[in-house]
Amino acid sequence: RDLFDLMGEARDPETGHHLERVQLYSRILAQHMGRLPKFRDQIDPEYVRLIYQTSPLHDIGKVAIPDCVLRKPGRFSDAEFAIMKTHAQAGAETLDAALERFPEARFLQVAREIAATHHERWDGTGYPRGLKEEQIPLCGRIVALADVYDALTSRRCYKEPFAHSIARSIIVGDAGKRFDPDVVEAFIHVDDDFVSVY
User: Fold this and answer.
1) Nearest in space to 186 (alpha carbons), one of 42, 24, 58, 26
2) Which ranges constitute the DSSP H helices of 35-105?
3) I need a surface site. Which of 16, 77, 118, 137 has the fewest CB within 10 A?
4) pTM (2 decimals)?
5) How does pLDDT run across 160-193, given as a tens digit for each residue?
6) Contact predicate 112/94, CB 8 Å
């Protein structure tokens, strides 16, 4: 067990497991994409290592969300969802504060990009900034898919876990909308590895 597990479990016992799975899914995607000609100049072993190490910080901003929202046993109202959505910006600001002290720390730079952008959508309808397509850093696009896959296949107080086949069809259907089509294509090639992790 590492710091990320303990940090997550302090608020929610399932969160530590979620962080670990997202970490593994993100690495699987990055490793596959790094073997493709299109991404060889962006993804090297160091990039894969960084995305593995930093992806558990994607939800660090949730420490700013009140328990009455974060741990609500059911779906959010519109007002509660608006509060929950602030976690992406809060995470970015938390990591900005760390970057002020250590501006050259690549670990913090990547963690900040992931925290800030893992809820942006390829079609520009995400949050907090409405970035679209390649305005969204690649690490954020990778972690976005890993995070959604885990949410779909995990039990929540308002839903049972979806089977892998259903989660897969949802993700494939969101290529070019929620997700970068290249990340979805990578997922299609490695989805057996996702099943193994789960």
Assistant:
1) 26
2) 45-54, 67-70, 78-101
3) 77
4) 0.91
5) 899 999 999 999 999 999 999 999 999 999 999 9
6) no
